[in-house]
């Protein structure tokens, strides 16, 4: 019989297998023991109050003035460039990529008062802070430009 066969027959295999199992268990147990070395306490499980987070303003808060100003300009541009004759009472959609706001302009009418050309309108504004309704008036200024006369939230 060869030496290898004698080693397996003599019971040495059970010693080797037993030592291998013990080494594997020790290898698995050591990392777990490191995790629990600090122990457990309720103080460590308490809520961490050192982390401070922010929140968005409530929907009743007015939007940031720079966003509103930018949206007002976008709405004014849409009102001034709209062809009222072709619209036939349909809403004019608008969107401001800078603020992420969008909406629709309705009740768009053109009034001429003593040579002054004005347009009145109602506009919705949908943004991250909610939905709002505005009423406005845009009038022709010198050199073909338009100027917002009134823009107020309803």
Topology, please?
Layout: H1 3-9, H2 12-35, H3 65-81, H4 84-87, E1 92-96, E2 101-113, E3 116-127, E4 130-140, E5 146-153
Antiparallel strand pairs: 1-2, 2-3, 3-4, 4-5
Textual characterization of the structure:
By secondary structure, this protein is of the alpha+beta class. The chain is built from four helices and five strands. A five-stranded antiparallel sheet has the order 1-2-3-4-5. Strand 1 and strand 2 (101-113) form a beta hairpin. The model has no long low-confidence stretch (mean pLDDT 78).
Percent of residues in β-strands: 25-35%
Portion in helices: 25-40%
Rg (CA only): 38 Å
Question: How would you state the average pLDDT, rounded?
Answer: 78
Task: Provide a compact summary of the structure.
With about 150 residues, the protein is of the alpha+beta class. The chain has helices spanning about 5-10, 10-35, 65-80, 85; strands spanning about 90-95, 100-115, 115-125, 130-140, 145-154.
Keywords:
34% helix, 154 residues, alpha+beta, 5 strands, 4 helices, rod-shaped
């Amino acid at each position: 019989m060869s030496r290898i066969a004698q080693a397996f027959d003599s019971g040495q295999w059970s010693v080797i297998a037993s030592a291998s199992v013990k080494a594997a268990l020790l290898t698995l147990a050591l990392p777990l023991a490191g995790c629990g070395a600090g122990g457990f306490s309720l103080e460590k499980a308490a809520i961490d109050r050192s982390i401070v987070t922010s929140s968005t303003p409530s929907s009743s808060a007015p939007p940031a003035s720079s966003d509103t100003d930018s949206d007002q300009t976008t709405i004014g541009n849409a009102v001034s460039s709209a062809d009222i004759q072709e619209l036939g009472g349909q809403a004019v959609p608008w969107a401001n990529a800078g603020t992420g706001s969008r909406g629709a302009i309705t009740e768009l009418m053109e009034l001429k008062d003593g040579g002054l050309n004005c347009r009145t309108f109602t506009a919705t504004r949908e943004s991250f802070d909610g939905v709002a309704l505005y009423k406005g008036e845009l009038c022709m200024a010198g050199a073909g430009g338009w100027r917002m006369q009134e823009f107020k939230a309803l």
